[in-house]
Design goal:
single chain; 696 residues; alpha/beta; Rossmann fold; six-stranded mixed beta sheet; six-stranded parallel beta sheet; 28 helices; 26 strands
């Protein structure tokens, strides 16, 4: 009886196939135990580089590529492609067994061979080559085989190695990257030792190699288990670690560490696996946190997808930062009375009127948050000396005195009335934890860290003792959707030498990614560590339809077009829960939802929870943070809607704050568009947003 194993990279391919093709793939492979029967057509490939590759007929147009052992019964499904593409893919590649790990490797032999002449020509005139400092003996000991060795010897720049990620065997590429980064062969060996088998390795025994490759191969025990895997292919693929990601997950850091990367590069996947790794190998409890309840719920769901969740669940807490802060403060002060947004605006207005000031409530509120709270200013003297970086409106000493008087009145009113804000709760929680010898956590993992404010960072710093592997966070400042500006050193966090950047997007097609990156062209975005963050080099190996941008004469016509697009996707086999619609405001959420309901399209409004099976998700751009959909509509990208007028300080009031607000709105649109995996439709009515006009 044939046994089927599935390469995890195939799960991504499967998730993006049309429903009719997915159904046929499922039908064929649930019968794979009868693969040698004539009805399925398991066939050899003429002129293949590796005669162990086979094709299997899905229908007249589609074929599956299967790795068949020379002996044994374990067949590994690698690809499902149109007939000609399947044969072309298989003819370019070979399967080998890594000499150090004993695991299976797939390489694009044709791409390697095609690259070598140019590399060797370039290398002839180079004063030195990338791996001159490493001997052949050490390279072979680390699993580098003959073909990859020849390729490595022709490299002169790290950029050449980076470009080879798509066609070199993944583990061998990882070894070369580590050596190029300055690691010694001994250090690389230590990193690999978890993967190295003590068995005698037979380079021709693919059955054994596949069995050892549990990190990249899903084994299916019968049709029922196969159906379960194929029912949620993308969810399973999301928790699969690629080599560079895995090295970050398993690294030992002497202090706080950070991973950055553009959208879809797997930062959240790394964070989840890092939490599991710390729970299994570290000491004490692990906190997994982020800045909203929806994202925290998503992280909890992601942890549950990991295959050994039950073994470490008791050692991991999942809570967003405000939830943690409230818990700590309630333990000390009891129930908290929170100041509402309307109450805050009224309080600032009253203070301005009583003091006869010319400042607006919005200006004073942001001055309090971004200067006083952010810098822990506690006196008039401290405020006079405080830096106001990012606050464009200059203030003389007399004006600062007036502002401080207003802020003093505001804070006094909070104390007298027993009222709290989210900021003051965090400040108090950090103070309480700083006074405690026993910290609630030994390790903290943070996702979407770019949106945390300084007081939240200080809280997390106080919640864990300083030491190895204390703080680990994933961030991308290009996806910052709130006005918080943080320099990590200012909040007591030093990540020097402990930052890794991911560049390969595993979610979004190259076409959608390139278009979305255009929205941020020319923007200078900080890296939270005193420098500028670059998104250069972020790329996708996936290809598909280019984004569609459509304009309409009225919002009513735009709504009709949105409903028509959603209906067309559903009719083509896309499940409702695989479709998202993002807009800028809650009012537009209601109007889109009403239109879809009127067209008998099931709808789920995202107001604090996760998407639901059987319903199209409609939510604000903020609510879409951390989510992803096969097909995405970003609607209402019109002048007057984006940038949202209330979200941007008028230039006449504060030029710097105005620039920050515009950048924040650009980033928000960027976040919304990069939720799409395969199809992106952007719509506007009357006049397009200036962000779209800039792309034309």
């Amino acid at each position: 009886m044939a046994i089927l194993a599935i390469d995890r990279d195939f799960l991504l391919d499967f998730a993006q196939l049309e429903k009719s093709v997915r159904d046929r793939v499922t039908e064929v492979f649930t019968k794979f135990e009868h693969a040698r029967h004539t009805g399925i057509h398991l066939e050899k490939i003429t002129n293949a580089r590796d005669d162990r590759f086979r094709t299997i007929r899905i229908d007249q147009f589609w074929r599956g590529v299967v790795l068949a052992p020379e002996s044994g019964d374990t067949y590994t499904l690698l690809k499902v492609l149109p007939h000609d593409d399947a044969y072309a893919w298989a003819k370019r590649r070979t399967a080998t067994v890594n000499g150090a790990t004993g695991r299976i490797e797939i390489r694009d032999v044709e791409a390697i061979d095609a690259s070598l002449p140019h590399l060797e020509q370039t290398a002839r005139d180079a004063p030195q080559r990338l791996f001159d400092h490493v001997s052949d003996h050490d390279l072979r000991r680390l699993g580098i085989d003959g073909q990859t060795l020849a390729f490595a010897r022709a490299l002169t720049e790290e950029s050449q190695l980076e470009a080879a990620e798509s066609f070199l065997p993944s583990v061998q590429w990882k070894v070369l990257v580590a050596l190029a980064a300055g690691c010694t062969p001994e250090e690389v060996w230590e990193e690999l030792c978890v993967d190295i088998t003590g068995e005698q390795i037979d380079p021709d025994d693919l059955d054994a190699a596949v069995e050892r490759s549990r990190d990249r191969v899903v084994f299916v025990d019968g049709p029922d288990e196969l159906l379960a895997v194929l029912a949620y292919p993308f969810a399973l693929w999301r928790v699969y670690l690629h080599p560079v990601q895995r090295s970050v997950v398993e690294a030992h850091y002497r202090g706080p560490a950070r991973i950055t990367g553009g959208p879809g590069t797997g930062k959240t996947v790394v964070a989840l696996h890092r939490a599991r790794h710390l729970a299994r190998t570290g000491e004490g409890k692990v906190l997994v946190t982020t800045f909203t309840s929806t994202l925290a719920e998503s992280l909890r769901a992601g942890l549950m997808l990991l295959d050994d969740y039950d073994e470490f669940v008791d050692r991991i807490d999942v809570a967003h930062v405000d939830q943690l802060a409230h818990r700590i403060v309630r333990e000390e002060h009891g129930a908290l009375r929170m100041l509402t947004g309307a109450q805050e605006r009224e309080l600032w207005s009253t203070i301005i009127r009583d003091l006869g000031l010319s400042f607006t409530p919005a200006f004073l509120a942001e001055e309090w948050r971004q200067v006083v709270i952010a810098q822990q200013v506690r006196s008039a003297q401290d405020y006079l000396a405080a830096k106001r970086t990012g606050r464009g409106r200059p203030l003389g000493s007399q004006q600062r005195a007036h502002v401080w008087q207003a802020i003093w009145e505001f804070e006094s009113a909070l104390r007298e009335q027993g009222l709290w804000t989210y900021e003051t709760v965090c400040v108090e929680a950090a103070r309480l934890l700083a006074e405690r010898d026993h910290k609630p956590y030994r390790h903290i993992v943070v996702d979407e860290a770019q949106d945390l404010s300084p007081e939240k960072w200080r809280l997390l710093r106080a919640a864990v003792p300083e030491g190895p592997n204390d703080l680990f966070f994933a961030a991308d400042t290009h996806q910052r959707i709130y006005q918080h500006r943080v320099t990590l050193r200012d909040v007591g966090i030093n990540i020097a030498g402990r930052s890794t950047r991911l560049r390969i997007n595993y979610r979004t097609t190259a076409e959608i990614l390139a278009w979305s990156l255009g929205l941020l062209r020319g923007e200078r975005i900080d890296d939270m560590d005193g420098g500028v963050e670059s998104i250069a080099g972020c790329r996708s190996e996936l290809h598909g339809h280019p984004p569609s941008v459509q304009g309409f004469t009225s919002w009513e016509d735009e709504l009709c077009a949105v409903a028509a697009a959603v209906r067309e996707w559903m009719d083509s086999g896309v499940a409702p829960e695989e479709i998202g619609v993002a807009v800028r405001s809650n009012r537009l959420v209601k109007e889109v939802a009403e239109k879809l309901n009127a067209e008998s399209i099931p709808v789920r409004e995202l107001s604090g929870g996760l998407p639901e099976d059987g319903a199209v998700s409609v939510g604000t751009m903020h609510r879409m943070k951390g989510l992803e959909f096969r097909c995405m509509v970003v609607a209402g990208v019109s002048e007057g809607q984006l940038p949202a007028p209330k979200a941007v300080v008028p230039e006449s009031e504060d030029k710097a704050a105005h620039r920050v607000g515009l950048q924040q709105e650009r980033c928000l649109l960027f976040v919304a568009c990069t939720r799409a995996r395969e199809r992106l439709l952007v719509t506007w009515s009357r006049e397009p947003s200036p962000f779209l006009a800039a792309l034309s």
